[in-house]
């Protein structure tokens, strides 16, 4: 006797998480992610020509924003949203009303673990975010909150409650996330190592955050997840996610929040052109040698008790210290302030600007 098909299980945080995708092309890659994404709401930020029609596969619940929408919603403050750069994704963070964000690039596909099982990257990110981080003391069995692990001998009991996790940073199989010089000298290199581990990035330690497989608690750290002023009209590109990562980590360390890295893996399918990348990265390769020591030494005032206060103070430090390196950083610091103003405008209680997409740019299941 035939049985009725079982109903789909409700995925974790279904009504509390948005998936943000920056793109310039049709989103056919979503077909591979359908089993994992179909029940979630997508925010798609279309980069480039707003008159170009972007096709989204049927069955997904999404909102599609283009540059016209950015300008309409933010007005003069739209200047802080990068154009012709994946940094445009942070507009999705801005307009989301959910507690959590997962962001992924459109050249990232479902990876498989060593047993051949498809990896539900989103589920792993959620597990990372919902368990504490060990920011103040390193556990040699990596994440002690994972099933089958615990705190090792000698780990202080007073620190075992951990810290709230603000960011979950995933990794990639196949195409590594290399800079242009490394791409040029290792054009055929592929990452085939699957390391079954999640670890907390220790307090006081910076890391190069990659935005193509990333999740965060928007309520905990959202105002600091600004991907900078990059791309068209700017002297630098491909440092958007790293800039956000340095700013975010300094603020997390100050406020006692945690950052995890490791699982989940995605399959990064397409290597970008190293010569194009070198043109975008050229100044950044020099500037990072000044920027990283700045972030390693910057100190936020004790009275900075919120992410917004921290970010405003950090913008002031960027202007005064890195502004000496190049005038670009003065412009970037001003954009950081504008971003914070836009965040408060969109997200302040009682403020409800018209944020719906153009009629032909919104689709529901």
TrEMBL record:
<dbReference type="Pfam" id="PF03214">
    <property type="entry name" value="RGP"/>
</dbReference>
<feature type="site" description="Required for activity">
    <location>
        <position position="153"/>
    </location>
</feature>
<dbReference type="GO" id="GO:0071555">
    <property type="term" value="P:cell wall organization"/>
</dbReference>
<protein>
    <recommendedName>
        <fullName>UDP-arabinopyranose mutase</fullName>
        <ecNumber>5.4.99.30</ecNumber>
    </recommendedName>
</protein>
<comment type="similarity">
    <text>Belongs to the RGP family.</text>
</comment>
<dbReference type="GO" id="GO:0033356">
    <property type="term" value="P:UDP-L-arabinose metabolic process"/>
</dbReference>
<keyword id="KW-0325">Glycoprotein</keyword>
<dbReference type="GO" id="GO:0052691">
    <property type="term" value="F:UDP-arabinopyranose mutase activity"/>
</dbReference>
<dbReference type="GO" id="GO:0005794">
    <property type="term" value="C:Golgi apparatus"/>
</dbReference>
<dbReference type="GO" id="GO:0071669">
    <property type="term" value="P:plant-type cell wall organization or biogenesis"/>
</dbReference>
<dbReference type="InterPro" id="IPR029044">
    <property type="entry name" value="Nucleotide-diphossugar_trans"/>
</dbReference>
<feature type="site" description="Required for activity">
    <location>
        <position position="160"/>
    </location>
</feature>
<comment type="function">
    <text>Probable UDP-L-arabinose mutase involved in the biosynthesis of cell wall non-cellulosic polysaccharides.</text>
</comment>
<feature type="glycosylation site" description="N-linked (Glc...) arginine">
    <location>
        <position position="153"/>
    </location>
</feature>
<keyword id="KW-0333">Golgi apparatus</keyword>
<dbReference type="GO" id="GO:0005829">
    <property type="term" value="C:cytosol"/>
</dbReference>
<dbReference type="InterPro" id="IPR037595">
    <property type="entry name" value="RGP_fam"/>
</dbReference>
<keyword id="KW-0961">Cell wall biogenesis/degradation</keyword>
<keyword id="KW-0413">Isomerase</keyword>
<dbReference type="InterPro" id="IPR004901">
    <property type="entry name" value="RGP"/>
</dbReference>
<dbReference type="GO" id="GO:0009505">
    <property type="term" value="C:plant-type cell wall"/>
</dbReference>
């Amino acid at each position: 006797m035939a049985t009725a098909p079982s109903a789909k299980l409700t995925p974790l945080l279904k009504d509390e998480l948005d998936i943000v995708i920056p793109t310039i092309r049709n989103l056919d890659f979503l077909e591979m992610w359908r089993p994992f994404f179909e029940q979630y709401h997508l925010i798609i930020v279309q980069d480039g020509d707003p008159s170009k029609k972007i096709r989204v596969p049927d069955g997904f619940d999404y909102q599609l924003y283009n540059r016209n929408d950015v300008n309409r919603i933010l007005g003069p403050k739209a200047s802080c949203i990068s154009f012709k750069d994946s940094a445009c994704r942070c507009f999705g963070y801005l307009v989301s009303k959910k507690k959590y964000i997962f962001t992924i690039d459109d050249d990232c596909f479902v990876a498989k673990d060593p047993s051949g099982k498809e990896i539900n990257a989103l589920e792993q990110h959620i597990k990372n975010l919902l368990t504490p981080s060990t920011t103040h003391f390193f556990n040699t069995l990596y994440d002690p909150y994972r099933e089958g692990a615990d705190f090792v001998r000698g780990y202080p009991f007073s620190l075992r409650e951990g810290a709230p996790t603000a960011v979950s940073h995933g990794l990639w199989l196949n195409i590594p996330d290399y800079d242009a010089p490394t791409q040029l000298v290792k054009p055929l290199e592929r990452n085939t190592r699957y390391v079954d581990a999640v670890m907390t990035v220790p307090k006081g330690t910076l890391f190069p955050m990659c935005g193509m497989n990333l999740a965060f608690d928007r309520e905990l750290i959202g105002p600091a997840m600004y991907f900078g002023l990059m791309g068209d009209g700017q002297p630098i590109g491909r440092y958007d996610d790293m800039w956000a990562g340095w700013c975010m980590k300094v603020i997390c360390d100050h406020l006692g929040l945690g950052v995890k890295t490791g699982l989940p893996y995605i399959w990064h399918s397409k290597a970008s052109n190293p010569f194009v990348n070198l043109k975008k990265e050229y100044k950044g390769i020099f500037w990072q040698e000044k920027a990283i020591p700045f972030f390693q030494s910057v100190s936020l005032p004790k009275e900075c008790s919120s992410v917004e206060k921290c970010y405003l103070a950090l913008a002031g430090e960027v202007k005064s210290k890195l502004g000496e390196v190049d005038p670009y950083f003065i412009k970037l610091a001003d954009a950081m302030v504008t971003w914070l103003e836009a965040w408060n405008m969109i997200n302040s209680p009682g403020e409800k600007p018209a944020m719906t997409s153009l009629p032909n740019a919104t689709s529901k299941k």
